[in-house]
Amino acid sequence: MPSSPVHLKLAYLMSDELGVKSKPDFLLGAISPDSVNFGTEQAGEDIRYAAHIRSRDYGVWKKQLRDFYSESKSEYADRPDLLRGYLFHCWSDIAWDEVVQPKLFEFLGTLGFGYDDMTRQKWLELYRFNSVVVGEDTYAECRRLLRSAQPAAISVCSAELIGKYRDYVADDYSDKIINETPLFLSDEHINDTAERLRSAGYLNEI
Questions:
Q1: Which residue, among 37, 9, 18, 39, has the nearest Cα to 145 in the 3D structure?
Q2: Radius of gyration over alpha carbons of the chain, in Å?
Q3: Which is it for the CA torsion 4, 196, 148, 153, positive or negative?
Q4: Would you say residue 98 has pLDDT above 80?
Q5: Are 146 and 170 in contact (CB under 8 A)?
Q6: Which of 68, 56, 3 minimizes the C-alpha distance to 31?
Q7: DSSP letters spanning 133-197
Q8: What is the value of pTM for the model shown?
Q9: Distance between CA atoms of 1 and 101, rounded to whole angstroms?
Q10: Which of 19, 51, 53, 114 has a 20 to 30 Å separation from 44 between CA atoms?
Q11: For the chain, first and last CA: distance in Å?
Q12: pLDDT at 111 over 90
């Protein structure tokens, strides 16, 4: 799964393609599932899975996302792009897991890292990639738009928690940035994720 800066960049790049009308809402939704990790390295699996409407079985996960969208559309009729952004985050996680993460794990294996250390090394590489993403001109625009978005509760994430996470991503995030050149990740992998979202029909679910 990608980091919040990567989610923001991907959401920003695809927002016009998706016909998004409120980019602030869409970008806020696109980081909101990860708000449950605020203040900790990573929330417990039960909380993370609930926030991402997730199952270990990807087929079940996809069904749960479709059901959640159908059940929630009327509730967010006044802010549809917030809900769409939230779902975009989850479908992007799936697309990333399908086309990027296996390649990243394969690369880490060539460096001699074993299974037990793979997840930690994956995040370290994402932190390196974060340093590239947050330095881009478009990311400054993402931050500006994000700051203007008004938090609202969605799924198991409260408006207060989402607001705190919004401010953290827009104004800090320094603890998840390593100022080193990425060993593997690049814009190619963001493009691969975008193409997977298209080719697998996931954009049609949003």
A1: 9
A2: 16
A3: negative
A4: yes
A5: yes
A6: 3
A7: HTTSHHHHHHHHHHHTPPP--BTTB-HHHHHHHHHHHHH--GGG---S--SS--HHHHHHHHHHH
A8: 0.96
A9: 7
A10: 114
A11: 18
A12: yes
